[in-house]
Amino acid sequence: MQASAKARLSVRSRPMIDGESDDVENSGAKDAGDNDDEGPCVRCGAQPGFYVEFDQNIGLLLYRHVRTWKGIACRDCATAIGRRYLRLTLLTGWWGAISAPANLLAIRHDLAVLRELRTMPGPSTPA
Question: What does each of the 127 residues of the chain score in pLDDT, given as a tens digit?
Fold first, then answer.
């Protein structure tokens, strides 16, 4: 994928399950309807930044807690965020009847985004 092309690394919708919460940690990202998918990284200010989403699934006995990070981040910051979300999902996503199957989807999604990030150009420091 070229750096000049618009890169929306993860856009998907998923139905909510009874008892499921959807906390969204929006780090300066535009709404999903906006076409502004590139810009400076919201964490370090480096260019190029890409719109990314990561899911975190925490399983509890009878329900699950879902947290999503949405924002524009450079390759390095997005990789750090994605690894943190994936690590917690791998450790805590299995503790519930509802959460265990949904955990597989969250893991697959985050791994796909991390894999895609490897093909993106590295960040350059802001001027």
Answer: 333 333 344 433 333 333 444 444 545 444 444 446 778 999 998 889 999 999 999 988 888 889 999 999 999 999 999 999 999 999 998 888 888 888 999 999 999 999 999 999 888 865 5
Q: Which domain holds residue 77?
A: 21-117
Q: Is 126 part of a structural domain of the chain? A: no
Residue 2 lies in a domain: no
In a domain, 86, yes or no: yes
How many folded domains does the chain comprise? 1
The SS3 call for residue 38 is strand
Using DSSP bridges, classify how beta strands 49-59 and 64-73 pair: parallel, antiparallel or unpaired: antiparallel
Torsion sign over Cα 35, 40, 43, 46 = positive
The β-bridge partners of 38 are 50
Record the pTM.
0.69
